[in-house]
Amino acid sequence: MPYSHHSHSGQFCGHAKDTLENVVQDAIAKGFHTFALTEHIPRPIEDFYPEETDSHTVESLAKLFDDYLVEAERVREAYSSRIKLLIGFESEWIRPSTHQLIQAIFKKHAFDFFMGSIHHCHTIPIDFDRATYEQARAAAGGTDERLFEDYFDEQYEMLQALKPPVVGHFDLIRLLSDHRDADFEGMEGVWKRMQRNLEYIASYSGVLELNSAGLRKGLAEPYPCSPVCLAFLRMGGRFVMSDDSHGTDQVGTNYPRLLKFIQKVGIGEVFYVDKDATPTDSRCSAGFSSITVDNLVRLPFWTTAQ
């Protein structure tokens, strides 16, 4: 019974499918022990995703997030005997005002944990499609390397401001680039920035997610790639598992490949957010527990996993 710390539903995310309850039911059917609900935070109109522009206002997007939290609590109670559901959110970091937005969310709501992610650089989405990626690259000076450097600088700003318990898809920037499977080879400035960011995450005991969505999207390795994982391991870094599902057909997708990656890299222990563990972050109601990879591979989930 493994774990996922990152999911979306079509009920509360315009680029996902299926209801929140359907997603949870599928996670139960596939044998998940712990499954996190992490819909996107609301954003000002200048930062709407393309699919939100014609279907939402600032007010309706904010209400959608409030409605998500109500439904998440209902579903958690309804299925409490069958799965451990975590209620959180996935942050953005688009411009300085994003910080105030997230602080306001914490004043209004309580969460088990949250995930800090970057989906933009120079305020432009970098994982939506190739056209917007190229716009961001042009804004950075016209090369992947310059954009990567700017991405990790913006990520560092997010890390310093939020200290997220879980850091989402650390190297998402490579997805639509011309260097998607090159492991940032030869990019000295990029590596210095990644090293800095990883050291900072380790300094406050943050955890990196191992995100199988990179495999679903055609990458040779999940996020983050093996050199990043190895560097974080040398710092004593910790990891959680995620499927980053956007509908029932993606719940647990490529988890066997993710497990093989974990074994290949040499990760010996996988962590998971646990409401029964003592919180170490005053903003969150859950802490972390862990399972050795030796015990993880013995779980019955893997006999039916996709």
UniProtKB/TrEMBL annotation:
* Record domain PHP: where: 5-213
Gene3D superfamilies linked? Metal-dependent hydrolases (3.20.20.140)
Q: Does the keyword Amino-acid biosynthesis apply?
A: yes
Q: Which domain of life is it from?
A: Eukaryota
An MF annotation (GO) of this entry: histidinol-phosphatase activity
Matching entries from InterPro entries are given as: Histidinol_P_phosphatase_HisJ, PHP_dom, Pol/histidinol_Pase-like
Could you state one GO biological process linked to this protein? L-histidine biosynthetic process
Q: Name one Pfam family in it.
A: PHP
What protein am I looking at? Histidinol-phosphatase
Record the organism.
Didymosphaeria variabile
